[in-house]
Design brief:
The chain has 235 residues and is α+β, with helices and mostly antiparallel strands. It has helices at residues 5-14, 22-31, 45-55, 84-101, 143-146, 160-169, 187-203; strands spanning 39-42, 59-64, 77-81, 109-114, 120-129, 133-140, 151-155, 207-217, 222-224, 228-231. Strands 5, 6, 7, 8, 9 and 10 form a 6-stranded antiparallel beta sheet that branches. Strands 1-4-2-3 form a 4-stranded antiparallel beta sheet, sandwiched between helices. A hairpin with a 4-residue loop joins strand 8 (207-217) and strand 9. Helix 3 packs across helix 4 (84-101). The protein is globular and about 50 Å long. The model has no long low-confidence stretch (mean pLDDT 95). Bound molecules: adenosine-5'-diphosphate and magnesium ion.
């Protein structure tokens, strides 16, 4: 079902938050036609096990807290859980680790989502430059962004041609064509995501930042496995 983004934003504002939960951010992305892993909130061990059963194993569990942004750093991500017993144990471990690292954080529970099959890891993001306004970013995930800073930027809005150029100008571009027998990434699919995110940000001034990190890219599709959206402070 499509969820209207303005409803999501209104709900976040009502709770006095500026950061969308992973689930809200993914709903927003789905509503603009950007695919994500199917993600649901579980407030208890039993709930997590039941949702896992419904989604189908293996699943990923992640900490769900409005106060925790970098989930991995909080011991808050477990990928590839294969049974209800593993899910139950992961629920306890993740929530305990989060409480220990962030004693003041409000913990909603965990999110449960399907495991996306491995693909080429991409990052697409937006932020606001004080001078130029919204800027969109494209890069390869992992060490390419963190160490090599191999990213391309454009001022929003972009046209299809800009999207194509951004993708081509990163140093790791050749990797998108597939390497060492890896499946290639569809360039048209990535261009389409860039266009949709640019259009969305252009039309939604309340958005301060978007971080789709990572997106797993495949030969004819792509899926965001993590999504973060931050709103401007309310004026
Ligand atoms: P963080 O808040 O630390 O950025 P992420 O949600 O990005 O947490 O998860 C950390 C890593 O776990 C991702 O970079 C990805 O490699 C892996 N991962 C997360 N969700 C999935 C998923 N649904 N399927 C497969 N791998 C995943
Ligand atoms: Mg992430």
């Amino acid at each position: 079902m499509m969820t209207d983004v303005s409803n999501i934003i209104a709900g976040v504002r009502k709770q006095g938050r500026t950061v969308l939960t992973e689930i809200e951010a993914k709903q927003a992305m789905n509503s603009i036609g950007v695919g994500t892993t199917k993600t649901q909130l579980a407030r208890s061990q039993k709930g997590a096990a039941a949702i896992s059963d419904e989604i189908g194993f293996p699943v990923v569990l992640k900490i769900a807290s409005p106060d925790i942004t970098h989930k991995t750093d909080a011991g808050g991500v477990k990928v590839g859980l294969k049974t209800k017993a593993e899910v139950s144990r992961a629920f306890t471990e993740i929530t305990a680790a989060a409480r220990e690292k962030f004693p003041k954080a409000e913990i909603e529970g965990v999110t449960v989502q399907n495991v996306a099959r491995p693909g080429i890891e991409i990052i697409i993001g937006t932020f606001k430059d004080p001078q130029f306004g919204p800027v969109i970013m494209f890069g390869l995930g992992g060490i390419f962004v963190e160490i090599l800073k191999d990213v391309a930027f454009r001022i929003v809005p972009i046209r299809k041609r800009d999207a194509a150029e951004m993708i081509k100008e990163i140093k790791g571009y050749a990797l998108l064509n597939g390497y060492r027998g890896h499946e290639p990434a569809s360039i048209p699919v990535l261009e389409d995501i860039l266009m949709k995110v640019s259009d969305f940000v252009e039309k939604t001034p309340a958005i301060k930042e978007i971080d789709l990190n990572p997106i797993f890219a495949y030969k004819d599709s792509a899926v965001a496995v993590d999504a973060r959206i931050v709103l401007e402070e309310e004026k």
